[in-house]
Amino acid sequence: MPTHQTVSAxxxxxxxxxxxxxxxxxxxxxxxxxxxxLTLLGLASLVTTTVVLLLMYAARIGVAxxxxxxxxxxxxFVFIVGFYALxxxxxxxRFADPTLAMPQTIIAxxxxxASYAMTGPVHGATVIMLALVMVFGMFSLRPASxxxxxxxxxxxxxxxxxxxxxxxxxxxxxxxEVFNFALTAIVMLAISQLAGxxxxxRTRLKTQKIALEQALSHIEEMAAHDELTGLPNRRRMMTLLxxxxxxxxxxxxxxYVCIIDLDHFKHINDSHGHAAGxxxxxxxxxxxxxxLRNTDMIGRWGGEEFLLLLPxxxxxxxxxxxxxxxxxxxxxxxxxxxxxxxxRFSAGFARYEHGEPVDQAIERADRALYAAKSAxxxxxxxx
Length: 383
Ligand SMILES: Nc1nc2c(ncn2[C@@H]2O[C@H](COP(=O)(O)OP(=O)(O)OP(=O)(O)O)[C@@H](O)[C@H]2O)c(=O)[nH]1
What we know:
The protein has 13 helices and five strands. By secondary structure, it is an alpha+beta fold. It folds into two domains: 4-216, no CATH class; 234-382, Reverse transcriptase/Diguanylate cyclase domain (Alpha-Beta Plaits, 2-Layer Sandwich). A five-stranded mixed sheet has the order 2-3-1-4-5, with helices on both faces. It binds guanosine-5'-triphosphate. Residues 228, 261-267, 269, 274, 277-278, 281, 303-304, 373, 377 line the site of guanosine-5'-triphosphate (GTP).
């Protein structure tokens, strides 16, 4: 019975996307990496807007020249729109670092430094913006690049502060500038340090992710394979059978199901021990993989039983490969410790009939196997 969640999930998938989703797709595109890059640019534009507001305030109270403020606001606008166009058009992918984090950081810091010189009594607020830009950069830049950007910021701000203290000591008193410079340097130093730690954390997470992926693929391998023989296990064979049945229902090739059972295997176990029995199972699996066609799939069905999935061939006789396997095993000692003991087996074949459940074909193959055993073993029967 469908649950509430499955019904609502099915309804959701048929519902047209909400306007906000559509808008975000138009604005940021579909590619998740590009969306992330644009989101960071969006945050940078927030910083930019704040700085422009500060500039406008400085112009309004008469400490900044309106023309210069307009020019700087225009440059901020060109900076944001230019980078947006570069990223949204995909042109950023041509660069070694498609996030363009370094040029964005350098340009943003330069424009903020210029704003610092123009905002007179409210210039202190721009120092916070410098720190914010570096924090955004920290998520995309390597630690060395963060250090470089911090050195650039501190040097640039040092020069701007000296220039301001000389040309406008009223709004930029030397003592306050020394304090601002020390504050900028300390913040940049702290950000450099944090960037290193963040990068180490990212590397650790990446290593853990790779280890988890490897563990998962190992678990998947274990869940689909038989430990003793290395062949696909019953569950995997069942999946393959279902897949072939579905493919056949859609016009794919017909196939045969064959169940193989080693003859008198209990006797091998009883007279040579369980380990010898295991060695025989492994030898059989190895030889089957060597002799059968690549398109024939064999798996361990359980105990001393194996299941084969054989796509139908124009030759007609589905037992050809199995006969080849029987002949090769007759030539080959089962195991060095078992003298000249040979592996013998009985096999039952059933042709998969269009539209029937795979269990039905397996049941017929089982009956054919029973017939092969009853007829004296070491033979194949096709039903
Ligand atoms: N060594 C070993 N033995 C197994 C394993 N799985 C099942 N067996 C043994 O396989 C034997 C199967 O015995 P039976 O079902 O009587 O079949 P059989 O002796 O081959 O007789 P027929 O099939 O009639 O020829 C049992 O003794 C099981 O214990 C395994 O993984 N390793």
